[in-house]
Fold this protein.
Amino acid sequence: MRRFFLVFFLIVPFYANAGGPTSSFSGDSLHKYYVELYYLYDTGLAIHQEFDTSDLSQLKACSSKYGYISTRAKTLIGIANRLNHPNKSELISTGWAALGCVKCTTDVSVCEPIPATLEKVKQELLAARKK
């Protein structure tokens, strides 16, 4: 009888949450995407202006100073993937460009597609605010 209760109390909580919430990641929004993309773009430009990545010592210094930033860029890709947006694929590809932009080993040309998407998202946010 004890085993029955033990198994019952171990298994039932998993089935109670099996359906999951109806809207996961409710904090993800186009505004959050815009803010993170702007931050990553700005940081990426700073990385490429501050360090000469052809020098190994500067590359190591860049990696130690900005190594954490790739996690934020990967989070941006996740945010873009969860958004319900007509241009979702463009947002995701720009997220990948932001990941490349903040890496110390890439060229600054990787950052080029980001400003266009920033401007589009900004215009959408302004239009939504006026409504």
In short: Residues 4 and 125 are 55 Å apart (CA to CA).
